[in-house]
Amino acid sequence: MTEQTTVPARLEAIELHRIEVPLVRPFETSFGRETVREALLVRVRTEAGDGWAECVAGREPFYSSEYVDGAAAVIEHYLGPALLAGAGRGPHEPDDGPQPVGGGAASAIASVPAAAAVGPALAVVSGHRMAKAALEAAVLDAELRAQGRSMAECFGAVRDWVDCGVSVGIAPTLEELLDEVAGYVEQGYRRIKLKIKPGWDLVPVGAVRELLGPAGLLQVDANTAYRQADIPLLAELDRFGLLLIEQPFAEEDLASHVQLAAACDTPVCLDESILDRTTALDAIERGATSIVNIKPGRMGGYLESLRVHEACLALEVPVWCGGMLETGLGRAANVALAALPGFLLPGDTSASDRYYAEDLTEPFVLGTGEHRGQLAVPAGPGTGVAVREELVQAWASAPPLLLR
Ligand code: NPG
Question: Which end of the chain is more exposed for a tag (fewer CB within 10 A), N or C?
């Protein structure tokens, strides 16, 4: 078999930057409470120029088994050296054979050969999708900047503005929750997502439904906090006219999601369980999910996200873009992805000020007038945003690491 040589020929060095960005308010989910976003940034230096990306792994391994120290370590010790050495296709990479050309994900991926070679070069390492996604996204950014193309153009975006939702954490009191939601409605967000957990579900959801009125778009996210025995309780959410119930049960527990889908009218949407195109198709076929949350970090990158999007589009399964508290860097790429035709629900693509008083890039600001509640899709080359390097330095929580 021919070794992949595109990446090693072009890649000169990888820099890892650790930063801590203060959140404007704490963000609480069923798995924990964040007061600061600890982010891992990757800069690749290539013959053709630099590329930046953000790793979405969180401070602790609570949302998934990945976490930021682990991601930094696996990049330092395994993924970075593999990419720099140009390791070929590894034992875990499925061989799909030649890809058809002429549209959709395959031609988008074929147009970025350096980024497309990253996955195969890293496949020797099992898992660690968020770390792999960050490397692939940095190479993609560098490659597209060199080509003078935006991510939106590469991905096949069909709109210039995307509808934005906002994710609302578990609040200390019902009153504070309602205040927070009212503020987001005032700002124009087109959909509210409430975090729920046992003991914080029917009452807050009912109160927010009353605040929004029957037409307000509302959905809930349980982040795996429930058990199969909770199905009757979750089915009671039907009376609130939700867009979807997101991931109530454990990542591995498709069977309980199938049972819930049969027991309630509200669509069940998987997040944590969907690791790639294969798991997405399997979950859809089993009836465990009828809507898919696409998060590029969780799926190992934007290119796999394009494959998942295309598969869902063919099955007429709506998708939407999740968020993981990204700074403007990760948000820019997510907004480009959310502009694809199958993204039929507003994403967790909120404005910068939802999380950050100051963003790592130029801020994302909600539109006005006909674009109220929307974000403009970046049109410049690569991510289309510029990393403010003075902030990378000011927010550094550790010295940068250089791999070459
Ligand atoms: O808007 O960026 C955002 C965050 C949206 O709620 C959100 N993300 O479970 O989907 C989630 C949750 C999350 C945040 C998951 C951080 C993991 C880390």
Answer: N
